[in-house]
Design goal:
globular; Rossmann fold; 25 strands; GMP Synthetase, Chain A, domain 3
Amino acid sequence: MNVGHWLHRQAQGDPTRPALFLGRDMVADYGGFHDRAARVAGWLIAQGVRPGDRVAIFMKNAPDYLIIQYGIWYAGAAAVPINAKLHGREAAFIVENAGATLAFTSPGLTGALEVALGDAGGDAGGGGHRCVDVTTPEYGAIRAHDPVAAPAARDPDDLAWLFYTSGTTGQPKGVIITHRMMIAISLAYQMDVDTAAPEDSIIYAAPMSHGAGLYNMVHVLVGARHVCPVSGGFKEAEIFDLARHFGRVHMFGAPTMIRRMTEIAKATGEKGDGLRSVIYAGGPMYMADIIEAVDHFGPIFVQVYGLGECPMGITALSRHDVSDRSHPLWKQRLISAGRVQSPVEVRIGDEAGNPLPLGSLGEVMVRGDAVMPGYWRNDAANAKTMIDGWLMTGDIGSMNADGYLTLRDRSKDMIITGGSNVYPREVEEVLLTHPDVREVSVVGRPHPDWGEEVVAFVVGQVDAGVLDHLCIDNIARFKRPKEYIFLNDLPKSNYGKVLKTALRDLLKDTGK
């Protein structure tokens, strides 16, 4: 089944129901939402896009993001969401790897992507890779194209979203997300996370290319309102104003966003009127921060645990568990990732994937309808990640007798800064392109606002400012090290492996 049918059905049943908003202003009702998506689909088909083809979206949050996404699905194609924070070269790699001949872009992102595609040998302006800025007359003509009558037929296991994870080995991997997976995580939202209703609104304050955008489908299914802030992102005062105006608001955010909301609310006297549910994920939530948030806003918070390979769909910590202070084990539950969601199974296994006894510490494994079938054209990664149908998450945790999963260590050496993932290897590879850098190792350092910040330990004679410019020219700014620490040698094991634990200890010992 094509998940785009949910929009079509909503438009058939109640076409005048308000649907898309930019700030307080309505952009389209459900009939208009469907019509515009159908016209995008008609144009895509006229350009030669066929079922199964990939079409990229390199855009900031805006109502047209959803129109284009559903237009892609109506055409039977697959959307390739690209984080608008990424550098043009990073976005170009995704476009190339996905084999996407079309990319819809926001102002300010179009040029960076076109230049990067040109540098890579692609044809940014013609038949190789075509970029369509959604503020140009070309896009206006697309919205006037003859519409398709209905979404194209698709099988449940057909590709719907091709989501690129940050790469632990230098380049990101494309996660195959099927229509079945989209439907599974949407229905799990209703069963395990929260209950969306027609009178609700969802505010897109976090990037629609990631978790926030994945929750659009269930809100389309029930006919809720979709609100994009005018700022295009996360500004605390704007969120409070929109929540007060619309009421019964759902939103998704990283733990750092919740902490900032709490700080601003307490400083300004805001109570969060209109906020019904705030779903958080994407990084560690410190106990003191969530307790403070619940004390101020009330029981509106729900935690989910997932990853790109099983998006939003592994476990959930209910609003009751997040806000309850009466249960004798409330603290242990509050620091957990919650209980397993309906579409999946979770077990704790050893390195070979063999199940371990209850309470044992091991690798978190998951299988079910919310789990990817594999990576895009990457058999080597699939062989390492999928074992007998189980996804090896790389996260270390334990399961207690009550069914609560607690994560004990973070996957590999990933750094989470402001809710965005940074894998050290991708930063290290950029720094190592400088001829005067002999060795480099990147780690995360705790940060009071962003959760962590990126720090690079460097062996070599080179100015930190030169390295900074090297990173700015090649990777997204949020991945750029905030400090460069120069050493004569990196600490290593007997086998020559860099000891990142020793580097983290060095940061603690020096107070840096």
